[in-house]
Amino acid sequence: MNMQLNRNRLMPFFMIVSLLMIQSCSQPEKTDMRANPETPILVSIGSAAGEATSGIQVSGQVEAAQTANISTRVMGFITMLKVKEGDAVSKGQLLVSISNQDILAKRGQSDAQIAEAQAALNSAQKDKERFTILYNQQSATAKELDNVTLQYNAAKARLDGARQMRNEASAMLGYTQLTAPFSGIVTHKMAEAGSMASPGVPLLTIEQKGSYQVSATVPENTIQQIRQGVKAMVTIKAINKTFAGEVTQVNQSSQYTGGQYLIKVSIPDTEKNGLYAGMYANVSIEAKESSPVKTNAASVMVPVTSLIQKDQLTGLYTIGSNGTALLRWVRLGKTFGDQVEVLSGLSKDEKYIVQAEGNLYNGAPVKIK
User: DSSP alpha helices (H): ranges in the chain?
Assistant: First the structure.
């Protein structure tokens, strides 16, 4: 009996000792698991090379040489709008029809007023002719002739007013049948049949087909070096095309462009194949002075896709000496197509991560492909 009691008292002690032994044996396994290195993330790297270019380097976009927003001056329901985005339209083609019953009624009223005014004018003209004869025969006074002449002039003025009212109604009627001002492509459709059209609100946008130019912005410190007619080299990386153009327009004000001056560069007809409005373009413009002007001599260019955005900060990943990813905050400058200028935070010829096959974070082990 006593032995059984002693066994029961010693049982909890043996259980505690067993748990401590199991824990001590499993501790090295956890340490070994933590000591195992993480699988490196495969990355592609690039080199931040500086550019030394002659002339003025700006970026812009290809746009149609002529663009029109189709709108109306009347309010009414759209009864017909059959074109859609991407449709080709010809000059004079009917695009939009707007309900016009009220304008037709006003024109009908004008027609009735014209008929009434014409009848009154015919009667006043006969009275004038009759009193003119009587006055010449000294059978009517000058006062009577003046009165009938005044009535004739008033009738003539009422007829002219009625005709102008009809012209106004006809002009307003023309705004209910909207046609294409030139041949082109419908690029934007902002309304559908059955909706209400309001005065001045665009319903369609048309761009002239096959006529393109490059629209670019120039900072104020270099706008004096650009003049109309100078040559410019245009590079469009999307289609791997480079050609010579010419500056056709230089805007003298930057009030509505954020301190940047807008310029237009022509595109030759022989280079328009394969172009689409909205493509990014890099433009190199000859400087006004005879000696070359060096710009961006120490600039560092990186792809836009390699940048990391976090709140209001912009950065990219570099590779540390121990083979890990290091997040570097940078300050950016101008954008040239798919490349952006790094003003500070990245040195020339310094390696950075362009693309990674995994989620990068600060200190993550990486392996170059």
Answer: 2-35, 101-136, 142-174
- Percentages of the chain per state (helix, strand, coil), in multiples of 5: 30, 40, 30
Entry field: residues in the chain:
369
Q: Which two tokens stand for residue 47?
A: 């080199």
pTM: 0.55
Please indicate, yes or no, if residue 23 is contained in any of the structural domains. no
For 296-314, give the DSSP string. EEEEEEEEGGG-EEETTEE
Joined tokens for residue 33: 């698991």
At residue 359, the pLDDT reads: 87
> Residue 98, exposed/middle/buried by CB under 10 A (0-12, 13-18, 19+)?
buried
Strand order in the sheet with 366-368: 351-356, 41-47, 366-368
Q: For residue 160, what are the domain limits?
A: 101-174
Among residues 69, 78, 28, which one has the least CA distance to residue 187? 69
Please provide the DSSP assignment of 244-285 as one string.
Answer: EEEEEEE-S--TTTTT-EEEEEE--GGG-TT--TT-EEEEEE
Angle at 279 between CA 273 and CA 284, to 5 degrees: 90
pLDDT attached to residue 125: 94
pLDDT of amino acid 50? 55
Mean pLDDT, rounded, for 104-109: 93
Helix (H/G/I), strand (E/B), else coil: 223: helix
Tell me, what CATH number does 200's domain have? 2.40.50.100
Q: Same structural domain for residues 188 and 241? A: no
Encoded tokens for 202: 């665009």
Beta-sheet pairing, 177-179 with 231-236 = unpaired
Q: Are residues 80 and 60 in the same domain?
A: no
pLDDT in tens, 30-83: 433 333 457 888 888 887 665 545 568 888 899 988 899 999 999 999 999 989
In a domain, 30, yes or no: no
The backbone torsions φ and ψ at residue 73, rounded to the nearest 5 degrees and listed phi first, read -105, 0
DSSP bridge partners of 309? 314
Q: Are 148 and 121 in contact (CB under 8 A)?
A: no
User: Distance between CA 238 and CA 274 in Å, rounded?
Assistant: 10
